[in-house]
Specification:
single chain; 131 residues; alpha+beta; 6-stranded antiparallel β-sheet; 2 helices
Length: 131
């Protein structure tokens, strides 16, 4: 009995560690948002300073295509954004973020979770203007 209670408590805590952002869900069947596909690369470029406080510290940015689905019970688009950090100690590191787009704006982002499957996405370069 104690083992079951302990496992239940551990599972409950594991959900708390993900993030404050609700998970994006791709409905089955996939429902496309009623709005047209946003010019998401431009939207992301405008939000880079908010997503990554020091975008100049990245050598390369890449984005996935749009995935239609739901976020907070409304139609939305999901995009994966990968930022490859500048080389340090001969190790190249990267950060993967999941971005949610609704009504023509990036409304939320968080560190990508395994269920986002960003590691399985085909990525394209995202040109960045360095300032």
């Amino acid at each position: 009995m104690l083992r079951i209670v302990t496992m239940g408590f551990a599972l409950g805590l594991s959900g708390c560690g993900l993030s404050g952002m609700p998970l994006f869900s791709a409905p089955s069947p996939v429902l496309t948002p009623s709005e047209p596909e946003p010019t998401y690369k431009e939207l992301i470029s405008k939000q880079l300073r908010n997503i990554f406080p020091a975008p100049a510290s990245f050598d390369y940015l890449a984005v996935s295509g749009l995935l239609p689905g739901h976020y907070e019970n409304e139609a939305a688009w999901r995009v994966c954004l990968i930022a490859y950090l500048k080389e340090s100690s001969k190790n190249i590191d990267y950060r993967s973020e999941t971005l949610i787009i609704q009504n023509g704006a990036v409304v939320a982002w968080r560190a990508s979770a395994p269920e986002d499957k960003c590691d399985q996405e085909q990525l394209e370069s995202l040109p960045v203007t360095r300032r």
